[in-house]
Every structure is written in structure tokens, then in C-alpha cells.
């Protein structure tokens, strides 16, 4: 049973059947629950425009009848300044574990200095694996070149380059590891298909760059194809992310649900929100098995702090997703329709105000009051939303798979070196390596030995591949190699084992190999 008008919704939903009683009867349960039970939530007012838009959003939701038991925690700049490099105090985690619902305003993360992104920390620590970002147009009331645009981007939220595992390895080279796991791909992709089914969507599109990153992005694409086969009623397609992004920016109405990796999804959802009308209009849900977080997709805009200028819509629509998530769907419907009516009536903040379309320019507080005045009303031109009583989608367990047969067949030795590749090869070939033989040296992924090109630009960071003719390599042989390299004063940085899994290589070739 699909819901109507749920294109701004932030989670998968299932209808809840009402209890059946005899006509006119009143059960003991109904008598004792006539007073609505308040749902505990954790709220953070954030930095910059955060306090203004959070207050506006809460005022609207409470005016519409939201039953919320609010616990407030501090996050962001003040917490960073107090010496908490994650931007959140240890005691605040207790609130999040207790309420399991986090309504969060934007914060400012200090640049550099070892400070970690609070959003990434929360998403990863609490297992918020699915970032759901609806992006819809509100033409003709909000300017856009794509008046029929109505898509949802489901972004992987924990892995990829956002694992934040970075190292400076040499004077010239820095590294960021791209981490992709099969279980992470499986639950995110399945969530996207379940979301599409539950919300009456027709098509799911996968974006990757697996023509280049054949192992990591290739795994995501493979999982998409495997799980997609279980949903024959849905149209499925795959795009390479660069041309797919171009297509999305040009004709977004051709997309319905997009599922993609973390970095791509972060970029694409901002682009989609902007071409729909404004990044300031987009809300976001971060869904996990144990806790969920709701927010705007935009940042804290510190230059607008305390000026009563910010549009609270992004956070408010994140709040609508939250109300649905906690089972207060009728309130979510009231808030959303009142907001649509406000936009339709031309009461706009500066970011979307346009002469000839808008009728009144308001600030943050004025916009909140305008929405509150319209609670109980519905839009006359834009399509009203209809939210059924719902419950959150339960994360399905990933299947247990038999372990693959793993064979170590070589090792990549990474070395800092300032000479030529030929000189490095001669030094490495002189090492007592037993069965291991130097087969290739690359620089920034390009083969430079043997038979390298003199035109190839090289840094001081070299990958030196040792193999054993396809035969299994003992770990002791790899340890012997690193010991011999150390004895020869070769400045090796790290090793990466080269393994076959069920006979398939689990490593990439060098460019030009």
C-alpha cells in the first residue's frame, strides 16, 4: 500500500492497521491513553543560523500538535572549543541512546587542527547507514528550470572516503582510503528498493564510477544488480556518475530514486536541491537500525548568525520526516501542508523571494508565524501531501556468506624514494627475497618500470609489486621482504597484500600494465 503525496518523506513506511472494536465500545487501553503520549527526542540548536531555524521549526511543529518530550544537548563550536575534538560531549551520547531520535540544527566544524566532522561521527558511531534526501520543485512559486522535478537520493552514509582514514605518507604524497564493504552496500541498496516500493516510486538508479574503481565501486554496482533482481516491479538502471550527474542536472525529471555511494551522494544531493529551487529547502533523514537523525542538508551560514534572515524550511522538512518516523503522521501532514500553503501564498524568505511571484518578504520568525497561521489549511495549486499512519522500516539482516578461499599471491611494497624508477628497481632486485620477484613499479598508479615512459611525472611515492609466479606466498616471506628492505635502508611506508578470493584477483593492475 503506497502512500500518497509522500515525495518529501525521509523514511520507509508501512501502514499500521487500526484496532478493531465493537461499535461504540471504549476499551481500557483507549481510556488510559486519551492523553497523547509525548515522544522523547534529542534536540541540538547548533551554531550560526542553527538556533534561529531550530526555534522556528519547533514552534511550528508544536503549534501543529506535535507531542514531543525534548531533551537538549550542546554540540558544535562551543564544544569543540572546550577540547572535544568530535564536537560532542560524552554525556550527550546517553541522550541519543535513550531517545533514539535526534533533531539537529547545523553546526560549524573548525577547519584543520584535527577536528572531526560531527555529522560523520554521529552517522558512523550510531550506524545511520542511509541518508535520505528528497529534492522536489515547487514551481511556479520557487524559481526553477525543472518544474516537474521530484526525486529522492538515498546515499550511503558510513563508508567510502568519508571513513576519514588519511595519512601523509611521504614529503609529497597524502592518502585517503576508500572503504567499501559488502554488508554496507547490501543494506543501503535494499533500503533504497524498499523505500521505492513503500512510497510508490517506479525506478531506482544506481550511480558509481566502476569503470575506474572496479573493485570498490564495482562491488556497489554488483550488489545493486543482485538485490535489484528481487524487485521485478521496479525499473532499474545504472549510470557512471560523471555522465549521470550531467544528465541529472539537465533533465532531473528522468530520475526517481537514486542510490549511490557516500561522496557522490553528498555532492549530487546538494546539486539536486539547488536546481530544484534552493539548497535551503531540502531536509534530510539519516536512518539507522537503532537511532535516526533529522536535519537540513545545508550548513550553519555563520555570516547570517542572529540576523533573522535564514529560511527554516530545510530543517522544518527534516522535522516532517522525523514526525513521520515517530508515528505522528497527522501532525507531519498538517505541518507540510501549511508550509506548502505558505509558499503558495507568496510569503517567502530572501533566498527564494522574487518580484512578481512573492507577495511578502519575511525573516525567520515571520516565516514561522506565517506557517503557524496556516495550520489546518492546504495548498490550492501545489499537490497536498497525505501521510498514512506509519512505522519505520526495520533494517533487514545481511545474509551470512561462506568465507571465500583466500590465497596471498604477492605484496605491494610502498616506498619513499627520490631517485629514478630504474635506480629503485635495481636496489629492490638486489634484496634477498627468496621466492618473491619484483614485477612492477608504479607512481601514482601508473606503471613506470619496466618499460616506463620518460614523459610520466613522478612523485616520491612508489608502489613496488612483488609476486611469486602466481603461487601462494607465505606471510613469513612478506615479513622477510620488509626486513631486507629495512636492512638495505629502503624507506618503505607500508605493505598491501595481494590476494585472490575464490580464484579472482582482489587487487588492481597498474595503469599501463
Please, how many helices? 14
Mean pLDDT: 89
In the predicted model, the low-confidence regions spanning at least 5 consecutive residues are: 1-33
Helix content: 25-40%
Widest β-sheet, arrangement of strands: 3-2-4-13-12-5-6-11-9-10
Rg to the nearest angstrom?
27 Å
| Shape descriptor | elongated
Main sheet, how many strands, which sense, barrel? 10 strands, mixed
Number of strands: 22
Going by helix content, strand content and strand pairing, the class is alpha/beta
Termini Cα gap: 53 Å
Provide the β-strand percentage band: 15-25%
Q: Mind explaining what this structure looks like?
A:
There is one protein chain. With 513 residues, the chain is an alpha/beta fold. Helix content is 31%, strand content 22%. It is built from 14 helices and 22 strands. It has a ten-stranded mixed sheet, sandwiched between helices. It has a six-stranded antiparallel sheet with strand order 19-18-20-17-21-22, with helices on one face. The longest helix has 17 residues, at 182-198. The two termini are 53 Å apart. Residues 1-33 have low confidence and may be disordered.
Amino acid at each position: 500500500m503506497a502512500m500518497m503525496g509522500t515525495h518529501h518523506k525521509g523514511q520507509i513506511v508501512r501502514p499500521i492497521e487500526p484496532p478493531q472494536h465493537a461499535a461504540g465500545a471504549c476499551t481500557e487501553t483507549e481510556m488510559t491513553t486519551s492523553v497523547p503520549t509525548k515522544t522523547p527526542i534529542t534536540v541540538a540548536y547548533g551554531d550560526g543560523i542553527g538556533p534561529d531555524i531550530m526555534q522556528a521549526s519547533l514552534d511550528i511543529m508544536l503549534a501543529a500538535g506535535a507531542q514531543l518530550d525534548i531533551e537538549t544537548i550542546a554540540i558544535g563550536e562551543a564544544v569543540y572549543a572546550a577540547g572535544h575534538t568530535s564536537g560532542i560531549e560524552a554525556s550527550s551520547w546517553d541522550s541519543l541512546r535513550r531517545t533514539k531520535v535526534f533533531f539537529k540544527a547545523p553546526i560549524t566544524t573548525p577547519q584543520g587542527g584535527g577536528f572531526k566532522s560531527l555529522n560523520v561521527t554521529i552517522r558512523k558511531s550510531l550506524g545511520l547507514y542511509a541518508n535520505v534526501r528528497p529534492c522536489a520543485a515547487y514551481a511556479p512559486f520557487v524559481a526553477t528550470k525543472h518544474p516537474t522535478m521530484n526525486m529522492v537520493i538515498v546515499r550511503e552514509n558510513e563508508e567510502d572516503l568519508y571513513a576519514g582514514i588519511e595519512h601523509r605518507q611521504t614529503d609529497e604524497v597524502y592518502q585517503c582510503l576508500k572503504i567499501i564493504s559488502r554488508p554496507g552496500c547490501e543494506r543501503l541498496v535494499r533500503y533504497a528498493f524498499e523505500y521505492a516500493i513503500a512510497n510508490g516510486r517506479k525506478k531506482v538508479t544506481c550511480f558509481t564510477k566502476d569503470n575506474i574503481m572496479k573493485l570498490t565501486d564495482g562491488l556497489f554496482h554488483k550488489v545493486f544488480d543482485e538485490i535489484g533482481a528481487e524487485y521485478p516491479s521496479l525499473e532499474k538502471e545504472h549510470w557512471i556518475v560523471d555522465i549521470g550527474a550531467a544528465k541529472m542536472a539537465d533533465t532531473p525529471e528522468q530520475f526517481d530514486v537514486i542510490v549511490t555511494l557516500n561522496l557522490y551522494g553528498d555532492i549530487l544531493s546538494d546539486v539536486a536541491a539547488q536546481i530544484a529551487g534552493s539548497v535551503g529547502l531540502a531536509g534530510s533523514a539519516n536512518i539507522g537500525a537503532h537511532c535516526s537523525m533529522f536535519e537540513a542538508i545545508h550548513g550553519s551560514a555563520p555570516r547570517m548568525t542572529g540576523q533573522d534572515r535564514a529560511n527554516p524550511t530545510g530543517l522544518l522538512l527534516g522535522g516532517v520526516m522525523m514526525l513521520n518516523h515517530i508515528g505522528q503522521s497527522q501532525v507531519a501532514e498538517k505541518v507540510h501542508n501549511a508550509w506548502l500553503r505558505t509558499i503558495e501564498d507568496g510569503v517567502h524568505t530572501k533566498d527564494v523571494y522574487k518580484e512578481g511571484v512573492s507577495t511578502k518578504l519575511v525573516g525567520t520568525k515571520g516565516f514561522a508565524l506565517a506557517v503557524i497561521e496556516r495550520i489546518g489549511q492546504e495548498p490550492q495549486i501545489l499537490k497536498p501531501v497525505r501521510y498514512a499512519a506509519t512505522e519505520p522500516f526495520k533494517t533487514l539482516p545481511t545474509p551470512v556468506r561462506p568465507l571465500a578461499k583466500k590465497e596471498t599471491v604477492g605484496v605491494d611494497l610502498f616506498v619513499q624514494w627520490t631517485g629514478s624508477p630504474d635506480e629503485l628497481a635495481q636496489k629492490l632486485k638486489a634484496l634477498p627475497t627468496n621466492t618473491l620477484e619484483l614485477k612492477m613499479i608504479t607512481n601514482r598508479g601508473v606503471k613506470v618500470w619496466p618499460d616506463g615512459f620518460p614523459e610520466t611525472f613522478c612523485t616520491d611515492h612508489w608502489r613496488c609489486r612483488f609476486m611469486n609466479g602466481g603461487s601462494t606466498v607465505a606471510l613469513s616471506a612478506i615479513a622477510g621482504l620488509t626486513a631486507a628492505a629495512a636492512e638495505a635502508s629502503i624507506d618503505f611506508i607500508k605493505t598491501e597484500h595481494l590476494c585472490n578470493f575464490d580464484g579472482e584477483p582482489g587487487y588492481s593492475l597498474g595503469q599501463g600494465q
